[in-house]
Amino acid sequence: FILIAWGVPDWTRGRAGRLVAAAGAAWVLALAVTTHLALPFWRDSDAAFGQALRVTRDNHIAQVGMGNVFLEQGDDAQAEAHYRESLRIKPDFALAHNNLGLALTRQGKMHEAAAQYREALRDDPAFADPYNNLGVLLAREGRFKAARAYFLRAMELREGYPAAEGNLAALARDEGGGAAGPASPGTAPGPAAAKERTTR
């Protein structure tokens, strides 16, 4: 970088240099215009992940991203299909197991969901979300001591984890005769989490 920065003034001397500088500026301007024109197309996840699936093969991260889009829209069956496709491509992808568990939980398939959360933990024992999500399922079964252990583990792994903290507080109220226990598992981690989970 330093070599380029120091060398630019030398390259722009003379007529040939000015032509090189003008061509470079035109190229940057063309890229900026192209980016500006394409930006509305890429502003939503549906378009971005849909395009990624159209132009790539066996893209497990794009499959999870598209599953998240469907999960947010309330189409749990379509979300499930995309998470399963991600796992076909990369069977040890903890994020896909976790998010598949969320889709199954929302469909009332608790036993299958628990199996997916456990699989996520086998693939990545330091992933906080499946601990929280398993805690919710255990609390729903009345297994409060085990649920508490899962919520605490999730909080150990991710400091300031609001879903696990809220679930632990709800569990304490439930055991004390207050409100019902933990309401729901966490949300589906998105593309940034997918990237983080693949680099482990």
Explain this structure.
The protein is an all-alpha fold and 200 residues long. The protein is 77% helix and 0% strand. Helix 4 (60-73) packs parallel to helix 6 (94-106), helix 6 (94-106) runs antiparallel to helix 7 and helix 8 (128-140) packs antiparallel against helix 9 (144-157).
List its salient traits.
single chain; 200 residues; 11 helices
Give the secondary structure arrangement, pairings included:
Blueprint: H1 2-11, H2 14-42, H3 45-55, H4 60-73, H5 76-89, H6 94-106, H7 110-123, H8 128-140, H9 144-157, H10 162-175, H11 191-198
Helix pairs in contact: 3-4, 4-5, 4-6, 5-6, 6-7, 7-8, 8-9, 8-10, 9-10
In whole angstroms, how far apart are the ends? 30 Å
The helicity comes to over 70%
Q: Strand portion, in percent?
A: under 5%
Poorly predicted runs: 1-6
In short:
The protein has 200 residues and is an all-alpha fold. It has helices at residues 2-11, 14-42, 45-55, 60-73, 76-89, 94-106, 110-123, 128-140, 144-157, 162-175, 191-198.
